[in-house]
Amino acid sequence: MDQYITTLLTLDGWEVMGLEETATGWLVTVDAPHPAHCPHCGHPTLHRHGTLAPRQVPHGAVGLRPLMLTWVPRRWRCAACRQTVCPRPAGLRPWQRWTPAAQEAALILLREASFRHTARLLGVTDGRLRRLVDRVVPTADTTWWDQPGDLVLSLDEHSFRGPDLLITIALHAPDRRLLALLPDDRLHSLEAWFAAIPEAVRARIRAVTVDLKRAYARVVRRWCPNAQVLADPFHLIQDANRRLDEIRRLEQAESRTAIPRWPLVKGHEHLTPHQHAQLAEIQRRWPTLGQLYHLKEDLRALFRAQTPAEVRQAWERWVINAEACDHAEGMAWARTIRRWRREILGHWSQPQRWTNGLIEGYHTKIKQLKRLSYGFRNRDRYRRKMFLGFLPLTAIPQLLT
Ligand SMILES: [Zn+2]
Q1: CB–CB of 334/323 below 8 Å?
Q2: Angle of CA points 291, 214, 196, to nearest 5°
Q3: Rounded distance from Cα 88 to ligand 1 centre (Å)
Q4: Which of 131, 146, 216, 251 has the smallest CB count inside 10 Å?
Q5: Rounded to 5 degrees, what angle do the CA atoms 261, 266, 268 make?
Q6: Distance of CA 317 from the midpoint of ligand 1 (Å)
Q7: Cis omega (within 30 of 0) on the bond before 287?
Q8: Model-level pTM?
C-alpha cells in the first residue's frame, strides 16, 4: 500500500511517515531512504552525518486541495571519499522551492485557469506561477519546421488591449496549430518571425492567408518565394458588411428613420421572414443601399464558384456592377477588390479552400482565456499565458526539462 502511495505521489524510494489534514490542505511527512552508494565515488558505505532544519514544499493537489511535502533533510557521509550527501524527495533540485510535480500541475491548470485560481489550488503565490510561465512557456512553436510536405499558414490580428493589436500566426497544413503570438502588429515583428525560419522551410510554404492588409501580403511575398498569398474570404465579407453598415448609418441620419442593421449584414439564406420583409422595405425606400446589399451578397456567392473560369467570370461581373453602382462607395469598393484580384482568385488554384476560420476559432479561445483573468498588463506574459492554452498536454512535461 505504502508503495502505491509513494508511486502516486512520485516519491520514489521515499517513505511516507504521516498524512495530516491541515486548514488549507494536506501535509505529507516523508523520510529519506538510506543511500545505496555514494553519488560521488560509488562506495556502498555511508554514515549518518546529522540533519538540517525541516523543509516544506508544495507538491501539487489531491482532491482539489493543496498538498505540501515536509521532511527533515538528512546528511550522509561517505566512508571512502568523506563527501556528504543530502537526498531530496520527488526530483527536487537544491534551489527549488516547489517540486517538479507541483510545477507540472501548475502548467496543466494554467492552460485553462487563471493565475489566481491555480495559486489557490496549489497553495503557492500568484507571483511564483507568473515567474514559472515567464521562464518556461514559449511564445512560438518551431517544431513545425520538421514537418514534411507543403506548409500552409494563416496570418491575422487580435486585440491585446483595446486598439493594441498582436499578430497571430497559425498553421493550416499539414496539421493545424497555433504557431506564434507576435509582440505587436508591426511589420518589423512579422519580418523578424519569418527571418528566423530556415530558408528551406520557407521555400515549402505553399500558401498564406492574410486579412486585408497590403503590407502583410508584401512581407509574405518577400519571405516565402513559393507561397501563394490568399485574401481571407471572412475578412472580405467583414469588410463588405462594414461598408454596408456605414452607408446604412448615413442614410439613417439623413432620412431620420431607423434602418435595421441585421437584414443587411446577415447572410441572405439565414434571414427570418420578418427580416426578409424588412430587407424588401429597405430596398424599396433606399435603392442605393439595396444595390450595395446585392454587391455584398454577390461577393459571398463568388466564393461558392467551383472552377477558376467560373470565379474569374464572377469576379469581373462583380467589379463591373460595383463600378456601375449609384453610390460612390461602389467605386471605392471595386478598387479594393481589384487590388486583391490575385489573392482572391488564387484560392482556386489551391487543392482546397484555406480560410482564416481556423485562426478565428483560436481568437475565440483567446477571448475566453482572457475573460478568466483580471486583465494583463505585461504583454510578454500575456503571450506566454495564451500560448500555454494551446499547448497539448503531452508538451507540458518537456517545458520543465
Ligand atoms: Zn564517496
Answers
A1: yes
A2: 150
A3: 18
A4: 146
A5: 120
A6: 86
A7: no
A8: 0.86
